[in-house]
Amino acid sequence: MILDHLHNAHLYEALHPLFAKGFEYLKNTDFSKVENGKYEVQGEDLFAIVNSYETEPREVRKWEAHRKYIDVQYMVSGTEEMAVAPLHSMKTIQPYQAENDYALFEGPGETITVPTGFFAIFFPTDVHMPNLIHREACQVKKVVLKVRVEEAVLLKLCFASNNKYKLEEIRRVLNDPRIALYTLEEMGIREDLPENGNTLEYNAWQKANHVYSMHGLACFADDTGLEVEALDGAPGVYSARYAGEQATSSMNVEKLLKAMQGKTNRNARFRTVISLIMNATEYRFEGIVNGTIAEKPKGEGGFGYDPIFIPEGETRTFAEMSLDEKNKMSHRAKAIEKMVRFLKEDYLQNA
Question: Residues 71, 126, 222, 223: which is the catalytic one?
């Protein structure tokens, strides 16, 4: 769910190819002269429903959610409250009806106030209850933009990274047509993300929260550290910059091997933390793989410390394995699998 003023609509145009056209329609139309009814903007892919009515008490309204369309509800005049809840937290009381594109629910939720000039965006995973009284019943005029989505896609997720290796790992695990995964670049996000915490948990949250707060996107981010017993857990959260802020992977590996010279205890572990933020709620997932540090780099695959990390039960480094082999045991794959299981079994359970 997104709530903002129409002046800031440009911040959300990357979320859907038709948003720019829809927001342009809202900005350039004098709705004081438009009668109630349905108006096509781009056929059935993008249309507007203009309606005037009196706001109602909560007990006469129902929770609803859609699959084929995103709702952009824009207040032309008056103020109303709208309730919203994540799909996974609600109980279905009327199954989805394709002909009307809605299902009905019951359960708790949060209430937002939407005044004149503001809009609220409800995605297929946002159960919502609009048209509610704010303080006292009043007449309002509202435009609901209906923006068609790919019917199978219920959840759009932004991965707060442009790391092509991580992306390939994740896409192999995240194999569900209901979930669409986008990179920062694909969503038009080009600013540097903050990552200055002292823990993997904080760094992952910081990146995901930045994208969610600034761009209104359901987003997840990861942070991974190589924790070596003989080095008191180093390089840990500083793994990516162990040899300096501008360090390359080979420079980090070289520094680590020098630090390990003469060490008989070569035990280490890779640990990945994923922070997923949706509907202003953080969900956290962790993956760990134990192993040892090799005496020298081996293998041409993978990235980062993969050439010197030998997972438990193996004689090869991660860099000597195929991506499929690595995904069966890697720290990131374990964290991703936990997140995917949550999304499929919990978050989309009512879909």
Answer: 223
